[in-house]
Amino acid sequence: FVENAFKHGTGVLRNPEIQVSAMVRANTLVFHVRNRFDPATASTDSAHGIGLQNVRRRLELLYPDRFELTAGSDGDWFTVSLALNLHS
Question: Is the CB of residue 42 less than 8 Å from the CB of residue 34?
């Protein structure tokens, strides 16, 4: 997630910004990555989102029914959030 934030959030922006946070709450790892991006130049090719799809598949194999992965944009911010139950 952090690599993608640098890849997509620092290229052509005048004021790039990336925010990363991780914490454990109630036996759940909560991880957020946010980056600014230019919606006008956002990728529209067929490979868009492949990395997130691959991560979701891996999480389903390793942590079935123990995670929540969300991703989306709000204005010029793109956010990926992962909540992972640390106990099976």
Answer: no
